[in-house]
Amino acid sequence: SQELEQSPQSLIVQEGKNLTINCTSSKTLYGLYWYKQKYGEGLIFLMMLQKGGEEKSHEKITAKLDEKKQQSSLHITASQPSHAGIYLCGADAGSEKLVFGKGTKLTVNP
Amino acid sequence: ETGVTQSPTHLIKTRGQQVTLRCSSQSGHNTVSWYQQALGQGPQFIFQYYREEENGRGNFPPRFSGLQFPNYSSELNVNALELDDSALYLCASSAHIVYGYTFGSGTRLTVV
Q1: Most-buried pick from A83, B4, B60, B108 (CB within 10 A)?
Q2: Which residue of A has its CA nearest to B2?
Q3: Per residue of chain B (112 residues), what is the pLDDT tens digit?
């Protein structure tokens, strides 16, 4: 079965700093989703990547998919307190089922 | 604003009891999936329904069951509750996986 490993598990940054979260898959990635979750709440869709080399940006968040490395990265530029939360990567594991990593907890200090 | 609504938001049940969680999906979203998220973990796939039929199941026992209705609503039923069933239960719907999934805010179930 497919497994996703996220790193780091947690991250504390000062407001204004850049940061990167990585997601590595045990199998080939056919579709990779990034979600953000506030503690104990639902998942907010950020981006979906489907092709190797694909890169998408939304506001200050950029996600890339490296299909050969079976890896995706999420980069936040000039972080703000509103970026704080848990970032989850999810992979299309077939049959429209998503497999998720354990998440990366981001804290942004003002 | 999410197009997926879950109820109730919080629930406390006693071990051995049965519980029904509800989800209202966006119109046109024929696929609904349920996930269980334990504290500090990523969501785990329970099962999926497509046009009112179960269309895939994760590694969960038969006491976890579901229903999907023609009006895009669905239910997750759990019988004989165990302490380990305490978790956040998330409903997600989609018109097709290529469009991504929309998640609800979840139901926090506590089994005591």
Answers
A1: B4
A2: A44
A3: 458 999 999 999 999 999 999 999 988 888 899 999 999 999 999 999 988 999 889 999 999 999 999 888 999 999 999 999 999 999 999 877 667 789 999 999 999 9
